[in-house]
Amino acid sequence: MSNKTPELSFEFFPPRTEKGVENLAAAHAELAKFEPEFFSVTFGAGGSTQDGTFDAVKSMIEAGSDTAPHISCVGSSQANIRSMIEGYLEIGVKRLVVLRGDLPSGMVERGDFSYASDLVTFIRREFGSDLLIEVAAYPDFHPESRNPKQDLENFKRKVDAGANSALTQYFYNADSYFSYVDEVTRMGVDVPIVPGIMPISNFATLVRFSDACGAELPRWIRARLEQYQDDEASLKAFGLDVVTHLCFDLLDNGVPGLHFYALNKVEPTKEICQRVGFQFKQ
Ligand SMILES: Cc1cc2nc3c(=O)[nH]c(=O)nc-3n(C[C@H](O)[C@H](O)[C@H](O)COP(=O)(O)OP(=O)(O)OC[C@H]3O[C@@H](n4cnc5c(N)ncnc54)[C@H](O)[C@@H]3O)c2cc1C
Q1: Which residues line ligand 1 at a C-beta cut-off of 6 Å?
Q2: Which of 21, 90, 97, 246 supports an S-S bond with 70, CB 3.0-4.6 Å?
Q3: What pLDDT band is residue 46 in, cutting at 50, 70 and 90?
């Protein structure tokens, strides 16, 4: 594990309404006071469009933050991806979060790329080594993977293709992260693998996300959240404690940074970052 000061990053999704644009600008301005390494903006998830991602990334870069668009290759052609990246380079993007993405229901065309590793290879071939490339890692394993060994090998393929670092799917059991990192390190992977942190503020949303993405919600956490479903204050207090404890555990063991799924909100991300000691510059 690294001896460097751990870096922060915050992930947002592209807003779909005027009000959403305002909320995102306010959340960005507030979380920027932590002086994070970068922000990122998702693409495609929940039906969001590339235009929405582009606009959000552009406005955060104009406000002075290094901001990385997520790009996914599922259903895309090489020409599409090339022109999308050229557009991002024009507005000053220096980092990309490179993903395969999930095939929307009803869509059958896979496009020119099968896996995220193909997209990393393409970007390195077409655009050289200047862009920083983040890829996804899954400590609880990707739901489609045949077995853990193959999932780890498939992760290594993305690094071998030229990824600079990785952001993980969220998890609540630090051991799954440490075991994942140990295993890929033994396989020769030496890029930073930054834990993805999902703050807890709503039971139903968290259960839906976790079921969809294969992140394990431990039984004891699920049971407590279920118990607090109609008691928002207790649910939030419990969620804060669980996630703060997880972050302390990760930081105490030398993780390279924390990547927060901030979901376009300041809280509870800000509170957790402050509790674990990140400096907030007023
Ligand atoms: C940090 C983070 C951000 C995300 N942001 C977004 C987003 O903005 N938009 C969005 O739609 N989704 C997003 N996702 C979700 C992601 O798109 C899905 O999890 C998707 O199903 C897999 O994407 P991937 O890039 O990990 O795919 P891959 O690395 O391509 O892996 C997908 C599956 O294929 C397997 N695989 C890989 N290579 C091979 C091979 N050569 N042969 C056989 N099997 C192989 C892997 O083991 C895995 O099971 C994000 C996930 C994370 C962790």
Answers
A1: 42-45, 70, 72, 97, 99-102, 115-117, 136, 142, 144-145, 150-151, 154, 157-158, 167, 169, 196
A2: 97
A3: low
CB 71 within 8 A of CB 98: yes
Which tokens sit at 236? 């939030």
Walk me through the domains of the chain, giving residue ranges and CATH numbers. Answer: 7-275 (3.20.20.220)
Q: Which of 140, 187, 171, 177 is nearest to 253 (CA)?
A: 177
Global confidence as pTM: 0.97
Can you tell me the distance from the alpha carbon of 92 to that of 85, in angstroms, rounded to the nearest whole number?
11
Q: Would you state the pLDDT for residue 48?
A: 65
Residue 123 has pLDDT above 60, yes or no: yes
Backbone angles phi, psi at 150, to 5 degrees: -70, -35
pLDDT of residue 282: 83
Concerning whether 11 is annotated as a catalytic residue, the answer is: yes
Q: Which of 103, 37, 38, 34 is nearest to 72 (CA)?
A: 103
Ligand 1 nearest-atom number relative to CA 151: 47
Catalytic-labelled residue, pool 7, 11, 37, 134:
11
98 CA: nearest ligand 1 atom: 25
What pLDDT is recorded for position 189?
Answer: 98
Q: Whose CA is nearest to atom 16 of ligand 1?
A: 101
> Please, which pLDDT band fits residue 271 given cuts at 50, 70 and 90?
very high
Per-residue model confidence as pLDDT tens digits over 224-263:
999 999 999 999 999 999 999 999 999 999 999 999 999 9
Q: Compute the CA torsion angle 78, 83, 88, 89 (nearest 10 deg).
A: 100
